[in-house]
Amino acid sequence: MEAVPPQGAITLAEALGRALALHQAGRAEEASDLCRSILRARPEQAETRCLLGTIAFGQGRLDAAGALFAVTAALAPAFFDAHRNLAILEQAAGRPAAACRHHRRALALRPEDGATHLALALLHGEIGDEPEAVAWLRQGVTRAPGFLPLREVYAGFCERAAVRAFGGGDPEGAARFCEQALSLLREAPAVTEALRDLLERLVRVALIVERPALAMEILAIKDPLDFPEIPPRDIDRFPLTLLPFPAWCAAAGFRHETWQAPAQEPDPTLRSTSPGWLRPQIDRLSALAREPVGVALDAEIEVVQGFYVKDNYESHLLADRRFLLREVADTVVHGSRVPLVGVTPGATAGAFRLPRPLYRTVVIDQPVLFLPSTPNYWHFLVEVLPRLMVRERVAETRSLPVLLFDVRPYHREMLQLAGLPAEQVIDARDLAGSDGAQLLYRLSRAAAPSAIPYPVAYRWLRERLLPRRRGDGPPTRRLYLSRRGSAPKHRIANDAEVAALLADRGFETLQPERLGVLETIELMAEAEMVVAPVGAATANQVFLPPGGRWVHLCNPDFFHPDSRWNPQMGVQIPLLGRFHHLAGRFIDDPADRPDDLLARLDIPVRIELDALGRLLDEVLLDEVLARPPAPSGSGPG
C-alpha cells in the first residue's frame, strides 16, 4: 500500500492528482489505496472521498459508492460533485425520481450548469413527463446559452413535435415548432456534425408545410457543414416551386405539347390475387396512367449536374431559377459537395443551394433533346429511355441530337434498340471535359420531355423493344438472376445454395451484368418464371410474357406490409403479371445495423431454403392449375 508521503514531500493536490491518474490508467486498486491513505490523514477531504466512490461505481459496487457519495454530501453539502454523482448512481440503479432530486440539489449550487439541466430534461423524458422535460430544456438554454448539447436536444424535440403536429393535421403547429428549432440553432455557438441530419429533416418538414422561406433559413445554418470552404456570400440559395410538367411549362412560359399516351393495363385478376398491402398500389395505376406526358420546346433551362438522387439519377431542371420539374417523390442526399434540393412527399416547394466556386458553367447553344442520366440500369430503362417517345409524337424533335450525361455502353445499346441512331447521341462529358468540377449546364434551346408514368413507360418499352427479338420461343424457361458478381447491394448471402435448389427445379443461373440488353430481353420474353433479388435487373420484369411469374428475394425492408417503401416501390409490381416475394433475414449484428434504409441495402440477407422451396412449389402448382385443360380425345366405342 502506498502511504501519504511526509508533510512537505508532496502536497494534497499532488496526492489527489496521482490517485486520479492511477484511476484513469485503469489501476483501480492502487488508486483506491492511495485515496484511503489520504482520507486517513484528511477525513474531511470531499474530493478524495468522491473519487473513491467513483472508483467503486466503476467496479459495479453501487452500495459502497452510494455510501461514499452520501457521506461526502453530508460532510460537504456545498460540494457539487457529490450531489451530481448521487444522481448518476440513482439513475444507474433505475430510480429516476431520486436521480432528479439529487440533480436539483446540484443545480441549486450551480444554476448555470448546462449538463445538469440536460440531465434533468432527459430524465423527465424517460419518466414520460414531456412538459417538465421541455421546461428544463428551456431554462437550461437561458441559463447556459453556450452549452450546445442543450440546444441540440431541444431542437431535436422540436423536430419530432413538428412531425407529430403535421401527422395530426396541424401544419401551422408544425411550422411553429420548426421556427422554434431555428431560433435555437441560429443562436448556437457552433454548428456540429451531429446536427446535419436534424437540420435536413427540419428542411423537409418546413417544405412539406409549404414554408420554403423557413427552409432557406434552416439551410443557411447548415451551409458551414456542407460547404466549409465556401464563404456564405458565394452560395446562392433560392426556394423553388415544384410543379407537374404542364404547370412547369406554363409558369416558365415555355412552348410545349402534351398528350395522353396509351398505358399498359394490368391483369384484371391481379388485385384479387395480390396481398392486401399491395392493393393500394394497384389502385393507383389507373390514376398514374392518366397523367399527361409531353415536351417543352425551345426551353431555356439550367441543368444542375452533381446533385443526385438514388443511384446518381436525378439532374434537375431549373427555369429561370424558379421552377423545378418534379420527377421523384423523395430525395436521398448526402455529402458535402452537392446542393440540397428538398423534395418531400406532398410538398409543393423546394429549397436549392448553389455554391458557385464549386461549379463551372457550360453553355450549350445548339438545340438538343435533353434526357436525364443515371448509371443505374433500372432507372435508365424504365425512367429515361421511354422519354424518347417524344420523337415519335413531335416531329420537330426527331432530328435533334440527344444530350445525356455519363453515357455507358448499355445506354447506347438501349438507345439504338429504341431507334435512336448512334450519331445522334451527345455525351455531355465530351463538351465539358473532365476537370472534376461540378457543372451547371445552361441550355438555350432544349426540348425537355416530361417524366413518363410507369404504366405508359411499360407499354412503350414492350411495344418498341420486344419486336427486336431475333427469335420467338415459347415461354418455358426458368431463370435465376444472381447478383454474385455485382455490387454488394441486395446480395444473397447463401447465393450458391439458392442456385443449387433452383437448379433442381429446372432454373438456369444467370449473371445479368454479363448479358447484353437484347440478349436479356430475349431471355425474359421466353421465361415462365424468374427468381431474382431486388436490384437493377428487376427492370427486365417489363419483358415477361403474359402470365409470367416473378419471385423477388428481398431484405426485410422491401415488399412487406410494414415497409416504408411500398408507395415508392410497389407501383411497378402490378404491371408484371404474377408477383411473389420472399424476405430473407439480415446476417449482420442488429446492434450495428444503420437506421437509414438505403444503407441497409448493403447488408446481405440469407434466404431460408425450405421457405423458398415451398413458395416455388406453390407458384408452380398455381401455374399448372391456371392452365386450360387439354381437350379430351374421343376413341372408338
Task: Report on the architecture of this protein.
The protein has 637 residues and is of the alpha/beta class. It folds into 3 domains: 12-221, Alpha Horseshoe (Serine Threonine Protein Phosphatase 5, Tetratricopeptide repeat); 292-309 and 357-449, no CATH class; 459-463 and 470-622, Rossmann fold (3-Layer(aba) Sandwich), CATH 3.40.50. The protein has 25 helices and 18 strands. Strands 1, 2, 3, 4, 5, 6, 7, 8, 9, 10 and 11 form an 11-stranded mixed sheet that branches. A 5-stranded parallel sheet has the order 13-12-14-15-16. α2 (28-41) runs antiparallel to α3. The longest helix is centred in the N-terminal third of the chain and has 20 residues, at 148-167. The termini are far apart. GO terms for molecular function: glycosyltransferase activity. This is DUF563 domain-containing protein. Residues 377-548 form the Glycosyltransferase 61 catalytic domain. Pfam families: Glyco_transf_61 (PF04577).
Alpha-beta content class: alpha/beta
Q: Hey, roughly how much beta strand do the residues contain?
A: 15-25%
Report the major sheet. 11 strands, mixed
Task: Please report the number of helical segments.
Answer: 25
Range of helix content: 40-55%
Query: Which residues sit in consecutive blocks of at least 5 with pLDDT less than 50?
Result: 1-8, 308-313, 329-336, 632-637
> Terminal Cα separation, in Å?
113 Å
CATH C-level of the largest domain: Mainly Alpha
Task: Determine the CATH topology of the largest domain.
Answer: Serine Threonine Protein Phosphatase 5, Tetratricopeptide repeat
Gross CATH architecture of the largest domain: Alpha Horseshoe
Choose one word for the global shape.
globular
- Radius of gyration from the CA trace? 32 Å
How many structural units, i.e. domains? 3
CATH superfamily of the largest domain: Tetratricopeptide repeat domain
Tell me the total number of β-strands: 18
Mean of all residue-level pLDDT scores = 85
Organism: Azospirillum cavernae
Domain Glycosyltransferase 61 catalytic: 377-548
Pfam family, one: Glyco_transf_61
Protein name: DUF563 domain-containing protein
